[in-house]
DNA sequence: CGGATTTGACCTGCGC
DNA sequence: GCGCAGGTCAAATCCG
């Protein structure tokens, strides 16, 4: 014999037996309403003993409880909107009366004064709480903005200083050497600082040689032919030149080559033919790529003479709203801080990818900075691949932003406002230079109304700094506050990759780690909440 | 007219 | 060595 609870309707036969009150499926402190919500029928629970065997129908009533007596009612006259419970509970007990159970539970709108007050108070409390949270986030937002701009300005200053130092070094070596020796000094000098400056500032070291070789190409007569064997790979950052000039250092050779090849790829949804990334680009080619009906366009940075940075833009074959932009090379010119954040991020990522370790301790591309700068994409995916032929960092921005971001950023046709929203000034990336984003939309005059001439750059800069940059930072910092976990995840991903394969060791194999904060991903175990 | 884009040709690297 | 695909060049063309 078992003891249990018998549920009965008022003045009717039992409708069910349960081993405990909780098994009723709803609060026993209930009354039943008809569809109109008027007539009530009390639920009554009786404690009974009954046979566990179905054959034995005998029951012994031990006691009967009216759950609606004042003594047992948990909240006096608490009632619940009938619709809620109708849907939720009607199936639990089939009374055959199409009754609606009123449990007196606390989840619902209210139709009497007391519960109304309680609900109001609770709502107000929650509202106040949210306000406090919002204020906190705003404060953090402001703080991060300040940090971001400070880092940007620090970087710019440091970069300019480095340029000056390099120029100085170049000049001093030039005076002391023969012409042939000069060349060696230039290139040799380039490799030394790079060793500790890593990718971000390495571009500056490349500058003299880059500029000189590029100037040969660009500043010369348009009809002057540069030997084909020389042109593409004879860029100072090209892998073929270094070994000749510095054959005694194979490590540097491979590093140079890898740096040249290191790429940062950004996938984003955009209707525009090209996402704005703060740089000025000139299209120099277009090619049909195998396996993709969409042509691949080739662009070269024209913000400075001889800037070796190039990018490829191609639409995804599967989803043509997705635009894949791949950057390669290092800028040889300072860029406005407008787009520093993300540029630094990808720079740091690429740097780590290439160096096989966390960024140099100079602080420019330290993990914290990486963290802050990558966070705008926190709800998206960063894929870092060391697969051949080039180590590539891919920022996949095609995933939906997380709810927080949705709330903070007005919806646009783009999913990633920070990157491709025309008004927010897209900021994309440079694989190696922590300063690429800036002057976005210089080439996107159809969005901004700005012209894309060199002369306008200066005109553009003030609004960049004061308006668009602010917008960008807003978006960035908003995203930062939205997901504080992403940076650590990315750093872990990079470290993970580096642990498995070092591109500069020449044994790059398929070794891809995904950092995905928006969807579950088996390969990113470090992103668990 | 000057700068940007287009486009066909050419070069290079890689796999077979 | 050959063919293919990716990447680049530069003359032609477009456009403001």
Automatic annotation (TrEMBL):
Positions of region (Disordered): 168-269, 500-529
Coiled coil segments of this chain: 120-147
GO MF annotation, one: DNA-binding transcription factor activity
Listed Polar residues bias regions: 246-257
Compositional bias of kind Basic and acidic residues: 177-186
Stretches with biased composition (Low complexity): 509-529
WRKY domain boundaries: 270-336
Localization, UniProt: Nucleus
Chief site of localization: nucleus
InterPro entries linked to this entry: WRKY_dom, WRKY_dom_sf, WRKY_plant
GO cellular component: nucleus
Tree of life domain: Eukaryota
UniProt keywords, alphabetically: Coiled coil, DNA-binding, Nucleus, Transcription, Transcription regulation
Similarity comment: Belongs to the WRKY group II-b family.
Protein name in UniProt: Probable WRKY transcription factor 31 isoform X1
Organism: Olea europaea subsp. europaea
């Amino acid at each position: 014999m078992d003891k249990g609870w018998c549920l009965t309707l008022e003045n009717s036969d039992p409708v069910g037996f349960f081993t405990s009150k909780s098994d009723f499926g709803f609060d026993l402190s209930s009354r039943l309403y008809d569809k109109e919500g008027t007539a009530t029928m009390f639920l009554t629970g009786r404690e009974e003993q009954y046979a566990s065997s179905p054959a034995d129908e005998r029951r012994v009533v031990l006691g009967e409880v009216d759950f609606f007596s004042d003594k047992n009612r948990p909240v006096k006259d608490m009632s619940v909107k009938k619709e809620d419970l109708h849907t939720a509970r009607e199936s639990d007990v089939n009374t055959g009366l199409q009754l609606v159970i009123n449990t007196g539970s606390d989840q619902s709108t209210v139709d009497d004064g007391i519960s109304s007050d309680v609900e109001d108070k609770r709502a107000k409390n929650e509202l106040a709480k949210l306000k406090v949270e919002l204020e906190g986030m705003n404060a953090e937002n402001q703080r991060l903005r300040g940090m971001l701009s400070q880092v940007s300005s620090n970087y710019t200053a440091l970069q300019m200083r480095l340029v000056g130092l390099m120029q100085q070094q170049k000049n001093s070596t030039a005076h002391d050497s023969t012409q042939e020796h000069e060349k060696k000094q230039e290139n040799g000098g380039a490799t030394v600082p790079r060793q500790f400056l890593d990718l971000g500032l390495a571009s500056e070291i490349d500058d003299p040689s880059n500029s000189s070789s590029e100037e040969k190409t660009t500043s010369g007569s348009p009809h002057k032919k540069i030997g084909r064997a020389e042109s593409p790979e004879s860029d100072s950052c090209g892998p073929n030149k270094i070994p000749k000039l510095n054959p005694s250092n194979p490590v540097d050779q491979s590093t140079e080559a890898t740096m040249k090849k290191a790429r940062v790829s950004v996938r984003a949804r955009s209707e525009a033919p090209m996402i704005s990334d703060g740089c000025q680009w000139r299209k120099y080619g277009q090619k049909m790529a195998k396996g993709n009906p969409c042509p691949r366009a080739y662009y070269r940075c024209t913000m400075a003479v001889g800037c070796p940075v190039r990018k490829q833009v191609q639409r995804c074959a599967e989803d043509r709203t997705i635009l894949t932009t791949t950057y390669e090379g290092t800028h040889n010119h300072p860029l406005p801080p407008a787009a520093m954040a993300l540029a630094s991020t990808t720079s740091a990522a690429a740097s780590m990818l290439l160096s096989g370790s966390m960024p140099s301790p100079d602080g420019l591309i330290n993990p914290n900075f990486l963290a802050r700068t990558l966070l705008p994409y926190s709800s998206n995916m960063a894929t870092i691949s060391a697969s051949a032929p080039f180590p590539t960092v891919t920022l996949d921005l095609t995933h939906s932003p997380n709810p927080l971001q949705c709330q903070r950023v007005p919806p646009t046709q783009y999913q990633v406002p920070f990157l491709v929203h025309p008004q927010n000034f897209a900021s994309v990336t440079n694989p190696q230079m922590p300063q690429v984003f800036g002057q976005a939309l210089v080439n996107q005059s159809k969005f901004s109304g700005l012209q894309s001439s060199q002369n306008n750059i200066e005109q553009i800069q003030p609004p960049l700094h004061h308006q668009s940059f602010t917008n960008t930072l807003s978006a960035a910092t908003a995203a930062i506050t939205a997901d504080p976990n992403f940076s650590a995840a990315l750093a872990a991903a990079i470290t993970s990759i580096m642990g498995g394969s070092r591109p500069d060791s020449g044994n790059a194999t398929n070794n891809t780690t995904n950092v995905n904060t928006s969807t579950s991903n088996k390969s990113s175990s470090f992103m668990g909440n």
